[in-house]
Amino acid sequence: GQQLNQSPQSMFIQEGEDVSMNCTSSSIFNTWLWYKQDPGEGPVLLIALYKAGELTSNGRLTAQFGITRKDSFLNISASIPSDVGIYFCAGQLSSGGSNYKLTFGKGTLLTVNP
Amino acid sequence: GAGVSQSPSNKVTEKGKDVELRCDPISGHTALYWYRQSLGQGLEFLIYFQGNSAPDKSGLPSDRFSAERTGGSVSTLTIQRTQQEDSAVYLCASSFTGAPLFFGSGTQLSVL
User: Fold this and answer.
1) How many CA atoms lie within 13 A of B69 on its CB side?
2) Does position B76 have pLDDT exceeding 90, yes or no?
3) CB B39: neighbour CB atoms within 10 A?
C-alpha cells in the first residue's frame, strides 16, 4: 500500500527559530495536506496543496507540493510556544471512488522552548 | 453543528464487550471517514462513506469492526468482542467530495 515517510520524527527548538519538516512518498498524490494535532484533539487542517510545484503560505507557515508529486515540505518561521504539537502530512488521490481517503505520515512532534 | 462531533469522548470497557462510537459530521458534507490513531502513531484508515455509494471498508482490521451511516449523516462504528489491541483514539472526519477532511476530537477507547 501507499506509505508516507515523514521526517524528522521529532524536533526540539528555541522560540524564534525556523522549522522545516517534509514528507516523501513512493506514490504520486494529487493533493498534499498538512495538519496539526494538539493533545486530546483531532488534527486541524493547516494548508492544502493541489498542484505540483504549488507554494502556499498561511501566516508563518509555508508549504510546497513537490514537482514530482511525491513529496511536500512545511516550514514554520519564527516559531512560538503555541506551535507545539504533532504535525502530520497527508496525501490524497482525488480521481474518484475509493481514492479519496488520506494516507498519513507518522507525524513530527514539535517542541518549542520559550 | 459547526464541526464534526464525536461521542463519547472517552470510553473504558472490558475485554470482550461490544462498543459503539458515534460521529455527527459537518452538515452538508457528503463524505465521512473513520481513522484509528494508536499511541505515538499516525492515522490508520478504517472506512469511508461517500453519499449513497457502497462504503470502502478496506481498512477495517477484522470482522469485529463494522460501521454504518444512516440517512447520509450520522455514523456509528461498532467494535464487537473488544480486545486490548483495540485501545486507541478513533477519529471521524467529514468533507465535501474530494476536499480536505475536517476531523472531530476523537473517542479515546481503553480496553481493560
Assistant:
1) 25
2) yes
3) 7
Residues of A engaging B, defined by a Cβ cutoff of 8 Å? 4, 6, 31, 33, 35, 40-45, 48, 88, 90, 92, 94, 97-98, 100-107
Residue with cell 447520509: B72
Residue B42: which of A31, A101, A105 has the nearest Cβ? A105
pLDDT, one tens digit for every residue, chain A (114 residues): 567 899 999 999 999 999 999 999 988 888 899 999 998 899 999 999 988 999 999 999 999 999 998 999 999 999 999 999 999 999 987 655 555 778 899 999 999 998
| Spatial separation of the C-alpha atoms in residues A17 and B53, rounded to whole Å | 47
Neighbour tally for B51: CB within 10 Å: 10
- Number of Cβ pairs < 8 A linking chain A and chain B: 56
Minimal CA separation from B42 to chain A, in Å: 4
Does B105 sit within 8 Å of A41, measured CB to CB? yes
* Length of chain B measured in residues: 112
Write the DSSP assignment of A3-53 as a string of letters: -EEEE-SEEEEETT--EEEEEEESS--SEEEEEEE-TTS--EEEEEE-STT
